[in-house]
Each structure stands twice: as C-alpha cells, then as structure tokens.
Amino acid sequence: MNFVSTRNAGVRAPFLEALFLGLAPDGGLFYPDSEPDLRAVMERFDGATPFAELAVALTEALFPEEFSPDDARALCTAAFPFSPALRKIDDRHFLLELFHGPSCAFKDFGASFLAAAMERRLRIDDERAVILVATSGDTGSAVAHAFHRRKNIDVVVLYPSGRVSPLQEKQLTTLGDNVAALEVLGSFDDCQRMVKEAFVDETLRASINLTSANSINVGRLIPQSFYYVWAAAQLDRDADGPPAFCVPSGNFGNLTAGVFAWRWGMRAARFIAASNENDVVPEYLDSGVYTPRPSVQTLANAMDVGAPSNFERLRKIFDDRQLDIRDTLSGYRASDDEIVSTMQRWYRERGLVVCPHTAAGIHAVERFRADGFTGTVVTLATAHPAKFLEVCESVLGMRPDIPARLARLLDLEKHTTAIEPELAPLRELLMERYG
C-alpha cells in the first residue's frame, strides 16, 4: 500500500515516508492508493482476540514490505500496553470505551503507534524530528504523553487560549523535557492553519525536519482503524446485520479511520457523524453544500472545528460523490443544551457519567434510532469524563472519579509560551529553538 495526496495523485509515498512527511508537499492529505481486501484476516478475530494481537495482524497485512512479522510485533507491543473496552448498554447499543490509555482519550491509540514507529525509524537512521501539532483538546495531550522523552524527537503543541478544559491544559503544559506548549491567542482553526502553513513554508522545511501528529498524519488514522475492527469482532456475527458506528466528530479523523476499516472489509451498516454546533458536515449531508466557517465554542470543545481537515480525505475516498457519502454517512448535530440533557438523563437513569463528546454521540444515536434504525449501534466513548471536571460538576452536581494518571497533574505548574495566531511568530520561534 502506498499513499497519495488528495490534491495530486502523482504525489505518493510509502507508509513510513508519508508518516514523517505528515502533510503532503503539495498541501494535500495522504490517503491509501488501494483498498486491500482483509476480510480473511478479520475473520480470524473474535471476542477473545487481544487488541495488541489484532493490531499486529493488521499491521503485517497492510504493510508487509515495511514491517516484518517481528517488526510489527515489536511495534504494536510497545504501542499498546492498553486496550479499548466494550460496554453493553442494551441489546442494541454498546459504548466503545477508548479512554483507557495514558491521556484518557481515544487519540492515545494513534499517537502511541505513531510515536513508537517514529522513534524506531529515527533511531535506526540517527536523525531528529520536530513534531508540530495543533489541538482543540485531546490530540495535544495524547501526543504530548506518547512522545514525552522519546529519543530524537521534539514536540511543539499549539492550543487555543481559553478553549481547552483546565485538566486538558495541564496535560499539555506540565510535561516539559522535549514537549513545548504554545498558547495561541485565537481559535483551534487558527492553530490548525498555522501548522498547515508551517509545513509548506520553504524556510522551515529547509531548516527543520518537521512532521505532524495531528489527524492530518495518516500514521495516526491507520492504528485508529484497528479499534473499529476489534469492536466488530466482539459482537455476535449472527446478530441481525452489521453494526453502525457513531463517532463524535470534530476534525473527522476518527470517522475517516472507521471508513478505512470498512473499505478493507470490516462489517459496518453505516457511520454516524455526531457534531456539536460546529455542524458543517451535517449541513453538507443535508444540503449538498460544504461551507467551512469559523468555529464556535461549545461544551464539547475537542469538536470545536469549523473547517475539518479530514473531510478532504473523506470526499476523495468517495471520489467526491455526494450520493455515495450520504449512503454511508449520517450526520446529527447536538446543541449544548442537548448535550447537557443527555448527560443528566444518562446519569439519572443509568448511573453513567459520560463526557460531553460522548453525550453528543449518544444524542445522535437516539435520533438515528428514532429515524428508524433497529440494528446494533456502537458509540465511540472518546474521553474519560474526569477530563471535564468543571462541566460534570456544573451539569451533574458531582465530581467523577479521577484516574491517578490525571490526578497527579492537578497540582503541577503549567509552562507555556503565548503566541499570536500568525505564521511569522511561529516561524521565528521554531527557527530559534530548532533551526
């Protein structure tokens, strides 16, 4: 499997090269140039298959020329000392808990795989790289923890000032060592634009080995596809039809990873994009018109994206055929009030505390079922509710239990550098530190 740019099919690279390039040189996003049929591999998996073993098998099957069986095993063993969990809500609804990794969010899976693969290659080649990443909340903490103290790698995280939760900010700003946090005086869209501009800036590209760990990096999305396959393997194959997957969606990388898995042969009835008030994709599915716009701030802050990068990938995967996209993808939006009412109802009726993003997903599932779907749905529970202490306390009147790996951060001092939302100061800072 090679990867080609969404903007020019002549720009192509094998997986490890695409992983280090991050963004394609022409400004496009890499996506697979072929769709291998992995049904025979997936049929070997069942409810007893450990997640790391499944990851090894899929890595071998996807990239036999880049990872030997021993390399794939070493990589996935190092990347995945944690696993997803599937919680049954009722006979037709499951939560896929993706918050059991080091930063308590789904992005740990992609970031950990990416960090292990990059460190391995850089060590072999005796080279150094700078990871430049924008975050609306969870990406930055996952990347910071996955790459912390990795050999031959520095990490620079851009996050929007005042638009991430206090605990998310602590995860970004308290590690130090090879991790630097930049507090951008703007929105996540500003952060994302600055990162994209940096990757095509000739001065920076000539002086620094820049790469990304955002979901613009296909190396993040490939391992995220693995937990969809794992979840499908946990479910009864004799049940009535394949499951639908509901994905809380901001930058649409997580949903794109699920589409990858489906195109490779995973059973899936449909994908549901659960958006907050930043609803440009549900709007596109309704109207056929895609209109990116500035993001608005919501309780589900990691989904506050007004111009989702990965929608460019999705449109390319489907050859920009809106009918095919609508045949595969449903979109629902949730207001802050609907997120709050869902959190409160599930706590009151089920005793379950969910994060605002997962609540947006649950709201979408309830509407999807009301629209007539009667099959099984798997909702991706993308973050531990303890990452949103202030929201839970305000909405539910209680403080969720805080995992020890988060609790230790609360008393640490944050260290950041404030920066205007423009390329020039970012360029100056990067050249001064790493050029």
Q: What's the overall geometry?
A: globular
**What characterizes the major β-sheet?**
6 strands, mixed
In terms of DSSP E residues, the strand content is 15-25%
Summarize model confidence as the mean pLDDT: 91
The total of beta strands comes to 14
In the CATH hierarchy, what is the class of the domain at 83-106 and 219-403? Alpha Beta
| Subunit organisation of the chains | single chain
How much helix, percentage-wise, in residues?
40-55%
Strand order of the largest sheet: 4-5-13-10-11-12
Radius of gyration of CA atoms, rounded to a whole number: 20 Å
The CATH topology of the domain at 83-106 and 219-403 comes to Rossmann fold
Describe this structure in words.
The chain is an alpha/beta fold and 435 residues long. The protein has a domain of 209 residues: Rossmann fold (3-Layer(aba) Sandwich). It has a six-stranded mixed sheet with strand order 4-5-13-10-11-12, sandwiched between helices. A five-stranded parallel sheet has the order 9-6-7-8-14, sandwiched between helices. A three-stranded antiparallel sheet has the order 2-1-3. α3 crosses α4 and α3 packs across α10. The longest helix has 19 residues. The protein starts with a strand and ends with a helix.
